[in-house]
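Entry: Trypsin-1
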Amino acid sequence: MHAWRATPPAPTTILSINERKYCGSSAPPATTVSELRIRIYTDYSVTATGFYCLVTIAAGSGHHDDVGAAERRLPVRPAPDPRGGRRRRHRRPVPVAGRPRQHRCSTRSWCGGSVINNRYVLTAAHCTENSSPSQIQVMLGDLRIGTSDSGEQRFSVQQIIQHPQYTSASGSGWDFSLLKLDREISFSNTISPVCLPTAGQTYADVTAIASGYGRVGATEPQATHLQHVTVPVWSQSRCQGRWGSTIKSSMICAGGYPEGGRSVCMGDSGGPLVTEVSGRFRLIGVVSFGRPCAVANWPDVYGRVTEALSWIATNTADANTCTP
């Protein structure tokens, strides 16, 4: 499901010059200053980190300083965001939707999440990194963005609990975060918790479903209706064969169709990857990162929920969690 994103926002790329932010086609005015502090916030891609910067220095009238051009390829450490393409028809469980209350340049910033009990939402740590609870609004039962559905419920966040082993370094793993809501959830036909997976299960080669309100393609706009896509789960060894040492034990891979065109996309971060076992959905993954948008033979990477079960249990002991 879809949710929020606070700092930096997604999916917009933002240029900050002396703490003033520019995005889209906006550009800073010509100005004379003695110092420039330039920051770039950008979408995430393991295979295309960094940006290209060309700086031209021009001398003002009356000065004789040497002038010229400086070029440098600079690394960045962006927050992960999944890529993908088309999604399938609606199926349950319905993921969480959310957004930040405050934004930089973009009008909306989204991630996803999953209701796991009557008080907590599980999402990705990169979605809540550097955010405070007051910056996040969580929406449940929202099947259409921009409208107020009859069963929709909105919540403030009381507490953000980041996984202690998560770091903002690209590919660090443990991309999990818990959101404790400000009150209990009233379950309904459109809002219900998803069950956690069985400890020790790899779920290799099963069919799973990912969902969210992210983009419907790399160059397409954000979806207005909840989208789903069916994806195959890869074995850990096969995934490591594709991604190499990037893949850690806290990650699980899914997707990577030979023909491409189907996967999660920008704006789906933190959303669920579920599989059906004996008539019940199990949450096996949390959308983390991937290559740009439904690339053939490249699976997307999710947080492996079985690796976080003890941490989840410890930090949600005051709620009733659905277990196998």
